[in-house]
Amino acid sequence: MKKLMAAILAGVLAVCFVLSGCGGNETADTQAEADQSLQQVLDKDELVVGLDIAFPPMGFQDENNEIVGFDVDLAKEVGKVLGVNVQLKPIDWKSKEMELKSGKVDVLWNGYTITDERKKEVLFSDPYLANKQIIIVKADSPIQAKADITSGKVGLQTGSTAEDAIKADPIYDQIKGNLMMYDDNNTAMMDLDAGRVESVVVDEVVGKYYLSKHEGQYRILDEDFGDEQYGVGFRLEDHALRDAVQEALDTIKTNGVGDEISEKWFGEPGLML
Description:
Residues 1-21 form the signal peptide. By secondary structure, this protein is α/β, with parallel strands linked by helices.
Protein backbone atom coordinates (compact mmCIF):
# COMPACT_ATOMS: atom_id res chain seq x y z
CA MET A 1 0.00 0.00 0.00
CA LYS A 2 2.85 2.37 0.79
CA LYS A 3 4.32 1.62 -2.66
CA LEU A 4 0.99 2.73 -4.10
CA MET A 5 1.12 5.98 -2.14
CA ALA A 6 4.72 6.56 -3.21
CA ALA A 7 3.57 6.21 -6.81
CA ILE A 8 0.73 8.66 -6.20
CA LEU A 9 3.15 11.13 -4.63
CA ALA A 10 5.52 10.79 -7.57
CA GLY A 11 2.65 11.40 -9.95
CA VAL A 12 1.54 14.52 -8.11
CA LEU A 13 5.05 15.94 -8.16
CA ALA A 14 5.49 15.00 -11.83
CA VAL A 15 2.35 16.90 -12.80
CA CYS A 16 3.52 19.91 -10.80
CA PHE A 17 6.91 19.72 -12.56
CA VAL A 18 5.40 19.56 -16.04
CA LEU A 19 3.02 22.43 -15.36
CA SER A 20 5.72 24.63 -13.91
CA GLY A 21 8.19 23.68 -16.69
CA CYS A 22 5.77 24.48 -19.49
CA GLY A 23 5.03 27.86 -18.01
CA GLY A 24 8.53 28.59 -16.86
CA ASN A 25 7.07 29.16 -13.41
CA GLU A 26 9.90 28.67 -10.94
CA THR A 27 7.68 29.74 -8.05
CA ALA A 28 5.22 26.89 -8.68
CA ASP A 29 8.13 24.46 -8.98
CA THR A 30 9.58 25.66 -5.69
CA GLN A 31 6.22 25.34 -3.98
CA ALA A 32 5.80 21.78 -5.28
CA GLU A 33 9.21 20.83 -3.93
CA ALA A 34 8.44 22.49 -0.60
CA ASP A 35 5.12 20.68 -0.14
CA GLN A 36 6.16 17.65 1.87
CA SER A 37 2.79 17.30 3.60
CA LEU A 38 1.98 13.85 2.23
CA GLN A 39 5.53 12.57 2.56
CA GLN A 40 5.67 13.68 6.20
CA VAL A 41 2.51 11.71 6.98
CA LEU A 42 3.92 8.66 5.21
CA ASP A 43 7.27 8.99 6.99
CA LYS A 44 5.75 9.17 10.46
CA ASP A 45 3.20 6.49 9.51
CA GLU A 46 0.41 8.52 11.07
CA LEU A 47 -2.38 10.90 10.09
CA VAL A 48 -3.40 13.06 13.06
CA VAL A 49 -7.10 13.94 12.89
CA GLY A 50 -8.39 16.86 14.97
CA LEU A 51 -12.01 16.46 16.08
CA ASP A 52 -14.71 17.45 18.53
CA ILE A 53 -15.61 14.34 20.54
CA ALA A 54 -19.06 15.64 21.49
CA PHE A 55 -20.50 15.71 17.98
CA PRO A 56 -22.55 12.55 17.40
CA PRO A 57 -22.88 10.78 15.06
CA MET A 58 -19.82 12.25 13.32
CA GLY A 59 -17.36 11.88 16.21
CA PHE A 60 -18.06 11.19 19.88
CA GLN A 61 -17.21 9.00 22.86
CA ASP A 62 -19.40 5.94 23.32
CA GLU A 63 -20.31 4.24 26.61
CA ASN A 64 -16.85 2.63 26.67
CA ASN A 65 -15.15 6.03 26.16
CA GLU A 66 -14.04 4.93 22.71
CA ILE A 67 -14.09 7.61 20.01
CA VAL A 68 -16.50 6.49 17.30
CA GLY A 69 -18.65 7.98 14.55
CA PHE A 70 -19.22 8.40 10.84
CA ASP A 71 -16.22 10.68 10.29
CA VAL A 72 -14.08 8.48 12.54
CA ASP A 73 -14.82 5.42 10.41
CA LEU A 74 -14.27 7.41 7.23
CA ALA A 75 -10.90 8.73 8.44
CA LYS A 76 -9.78 5.23 9.43
CA GLU A 77 -10.66 3.92 5.98
CA VAL A 78 -8.66 6.75 4.40
CA GLY A 79 -5.77 5.73 6.64
CA LYS A 80 -6.00 2.20 5.27
CA VAL A 81 -5.86 3.47 1.69
CA LEU A 82 -2.87 5.68 2.52
CA GLY A 83 -1.23 2.84 4.41
CA VAL A 84 -0.83 4.82 7.65
CA ASN A 85 -2.26 4.76 11.15
CA VAL A 86 -4.88 7.32 12.17
CA GLN A 87 -4.53 9.14 15.48
CA LEU A 88 -7.76 10.72 16.74
CA LYS A 89 -6.88 13.90 18.62
CA PRO A 90 -9.66 15.69 20.55
CA ILE A 91 -9.26 19.46 20.26
CA ASP A 92 -11.00 22.63 21.40
CA TRP A 93 -13.34 23.09 18.43
CA LYS A 94 -13.53 26.84 19.05
CA SER A 95 -9.80 27.01 18.23
CA LYS A 96 -9.75 24.38 15.48
CA GLU A 97 -8.05 26.49 12.81
CA MET A 98 -5.34 27.48 15.28
CA GLU A 99 -4.78 23.82 16.17
CA LEU A 100 -4.38 23.04 12.46
CA LYS A 101 -2.03 25.92 11.67
CA SER A 102 0.16 25.15 14.68
CA GLY A 103 0.80 21.64 13.35
CA LYS A 104 -0.82 19.87 16.30
CA VAL A 105 -3.08 18.05 13.84
CA ASP A 106 -2.75 17.19 10.16
CA VAL A 107 -6.42 17.62 9.29
CA LEU A 108 -9.72 18.87 10.72
CA TRP A 109 -12.34 16.20 10.24
CA ASN A 110 -15.58 16.19 12.20
CA GLY A 111 -18.65 17.62 10.53
CA TYR A 112 -16.52 20.55 9.34
CA THR A 113 -18.63 22.83 7.15
CA ILE A 114 -17.12 24.41 4.06
CA THR A 115 -17.64 28.19 4.05
CA ASP A 116 -16.14 31.05 2.04
CA GLU A 117 -14.79 32.58 5.24
CA ARG A 118 -13.02 29.38 6.26
CA LYS A 119 -11.55 28.97 2.77
CA LYS A 120 -9.43 32.03 3.49
CA GLU A 121 -7.39 30.05 6.02
CA VAL A 122 -8.14 26.39 5.29
CA LEU A 123 -7.72 24.17 2.21
CA PHE A 124 -10.73 21.88 1.82
CA SER A 125 -11.37 18.53 0.24
CA ASP A 126 -14.33 18.21 -2.10
CA PRO A 127 -17.65 18.09 -0.20
CA TYR A 128 -18.43 14.57 0.99
CA LEU A 129 -21.71 15.01 2.92
CA ALA A 130 -24.68 17.39 2.73
CA ASN A 131 -26.02 19.09 5.84
CA LYS A 132 -28.16 22.01 7.03
CA GLN A 133 -28.69 23.97 10.22
CA ILE A 134 -32.00 22.93 11.77
CA ILE A 135 -34.09 24.10 14.72
CA ILE A 136 -34.99 21.58 17.42
CA VAL A 137 -37.63 22.12 20.10
CA LYS A 138 -39.27 19.89 22.68
CA ALA A 139 -42.16 17.83 21.38
CA ASP A 140 -44.74 19.78 23.37
CA SER A 141 -43.26 23.23 22.64
CA PRO A 142 -45.62 25.96 21.39
CA ILE A 143 -42.92 26.97 18.89
CA GLN A 144 -44.11 26.03 15.41
CA ALA A 145 -42.17 28.29 13.04
CA LYS A 146 -38.75 29.87 12.74
CA ALA A 147 -40.16 33.27 13.68
CA ASP A 148 -41.41 31.82 16.97
CA ILE A 149 -37.90 31.22 18.34
CA THR A 150 -37.66 34.95 19.05
CA SER A 151 -39.92 34.38 22.06
CA GLY A 152 -37.36 32.38 24.04
CA LYS A 153 -33.71 31.52 24.48
CA VAL A 154 -31.86 29.80 21.64
CA GLY A 155 -28.97 27.40 22.31
CA LEU A 156 -26.06 26.72 19.95
CA GLN A 157 -22.41 25.69 19.94
CA THR A 158 -19.75 28.39 20.03
CA GLY A 159 -17.66 28.54 16.86
CA SER A 160 -20.09 26.39 14.89
CA THR A 161 -21.68 27.12 11.54
CA ALA A 162 -24.95 27.33 13.45
CA GLU A 163 -23.57 30.54 14.93
CA ASP A 164 -22.51 31.77 11.48
CA ALA A 165 -25.89 30.89 9.96
CA ILE A 166 -27.86 32.70 12.65
CA LYS A 167 -25.71 35.82 12.40
CA ALA A 168 -26.23 35.88 8.63
CA ASP A 169 -30.01 35.53 8.92
CA PRO A 170 -32.41 38.52 9.15
CA ILE A 171 -33.80 37.04 12.38
CA TYR A 172 -30.48 37.64 14.17
CA ASP A 173 -31.33 41.18 15.29
CA GLN A 174 -34.41 39.83 17.06
CA ILE A 175 -32.68 36.97 18.88
CA LYS A 176 -29.09 38.11 19.47
CA GLY A 177 -29.91 39.00 23.06
CA ASN A 178 -31.39 35.54 23.65
CA LEU A 179 -28.54 33.40 22.34
CA MET A 180 -27.06 30.88 24.78
CA MET A 181 -23.61 29.70 23.73
CA TYR A 182 -22.26 26.24 24.62
CA ASP A 183 -18.96 24.44 24.27
CA ASP A 184 -20.74 21.44 22.76
CA ASN A 185 -24.13 20.36 21.46
CA ASN A 186 -24.62 17.79 24.21
CA THR A 187 -24.88 20.52 26.84
CA ALA A 188 -27.19 22.59 24.66
CA MET A 189 -29.55 19.63 24.27
CA MET A 190 -29.44 18.96 28.01
CA ASP A 191 -30.49 22.56 28.65
CA LEU A 192 -33.29 22.23 26.11
CA ASP A 193 -34.54 19.19 27.99
CA ALA A 194 -34.27 21.07 31.30
CA GLY A 195 -36.14 24.10 29.95
CA ARG A 196 -33.22 26.51 30.19
CA VAL A 197 -33.51 27.18 26.45
CA GLU A 198 -36.59 26.90 24.24
CA SER A 199 -34.83 25.85 21.03
CA VAL A 200 -31.46 24.63 19.76
CA VAL A 201 -29.93 25.32 16.35
CA VAL A 202 -27.71 22.44 15.32
CA ASP A 203 -26.42 20.45 12.35
CA GLU A 204 -29.10 18.25 10.82
CA VAL A 205 -26.99 15.09 11.13
CA VAL A 206 -26.54 15.76 14.85
CA GLY A 207 -30.16 16.71 15.45
CA LYS A 208 -31.58 13.68 13.70
CA TYR A 209 -29.22 11.43 15.64
CA TYR A 210 -30.49 12.89 18.93
CA LEU A 211 -34.09 12.40 17.85
CA SER A 212 -33.42 8.78 16.93
CA LYS A 213 -32.03 8.17 20.43
CA HIS A 214 -34.85 10.03 22.22
CA GLU A 215 -38.00 9.18 20.31
CA GLY A 216 -40.97 11.39 21.08
CA GLN A 217 -39.02 13.95 23.13
CA TYR A 218 -38.13 16.47 20.41
CA ARG A 219 -39.20 17.64 16.99
CA ILE A 220 -37.61 19.53 14.11
CA LEU A 221 -39.18 22.67 12.66
CA ASP A 222 -39.94 22.71 8.93
CA GLU A 223 -37.90 25.89 8.45
CA ASP A 224 -34.12 25.93 8.81
CA PHE A 225 -31.06 28.17 8.40
CA GLY A 226 -29.93 26.87 5.01
CA ASP A 227 -28.01 24.08 3.32
CA GLU A 228 -24.29 23.43 3.65
CA GLN A 229 -21.68 20.74 2.98
CA TYR A 230 -18.98 19.01 5.00
CA GLY A 231 -15.34 18.75 3.93
CA VAL A 232 -11.96 17.75 5.35
CA GLY A 233 -9.78 20.73 6.30
CA PHE A 234 -6.03 21.04 5.58
CA ARG A 235 -3.41 23.74 5.94
CA LEU A 236 -3.48 26.06 2.92
CA GLU A 237 -0.10 24.87 1.69
CA ASP A 238 -0.75 21.12 2.10
CA HIS A 239 -1.93 20.36 -1.43
CA ALA A 240 -0.15 17.01 -1.70
CA LEU A 241 -1.83 15.64 1.42
CA ARG A 242 -5.17 17.08 0.38
CA ASP A 243 -4.98 15.43 -3.05
CA ALA A 244 -4.03 12.04 -1.59
CA VAL A 245 -6.87 12.12 0.94
CA GLN A 246 -9.29 13.20 -1.79
CA GLU A 247 -8.22 10.29 -3.97
CA ALA A 248 -8.74 7.94 -1.02
CA LEU A 249 -12.22 9.39 -0.39
CA ASP A 250 -13.10 8.90 -4.06
CA THR A 251 -12.01 5.27 -3.78
CA ILE A 252 -14.09 4.72 -0.63
CA LYS A 253 -17.13 6.19 -2.33
CA THR A 254 -16.86 3.92 -5.37
CA ASN A 255 -15.77 0.65 -3.71
CA GLY A 256 -18.85 0.36 -1.50
CA VAL A 257 -17.15 1.07 1.83
CA GLY A 258 -18.70 4.53 1.98
CA ASP A 259 -22.15 2.99 1.65
CA GLU A 260 -21.40 0.58 4.50
CA ILE A 261 -20.34 3.43 6.80
CA SER A 262 -23.40 5.47 5.80
CA GLU A 263 -25.70 2.53 6.50
CA LYS A 264 -24.07 1.99 9.89
CA TRP A 265 -24.53 5.55 11.14
CA PHE A 266 -27.51 6.92 9.21
CA GLY A 267 -29.48 3.79 8.40
CA GLU A 268 -29.20 4.26 4.66
CA PRO A 269 -26.46 4.02 2.00
CA GLY A 270 -25.57 6.50 -0.71
CA LEU A 271 -25.30 9.65 1.40
CA MET A 272 -21.71 10.47 0.40
CA LEU A 273 -21.60 13.19 -2.25
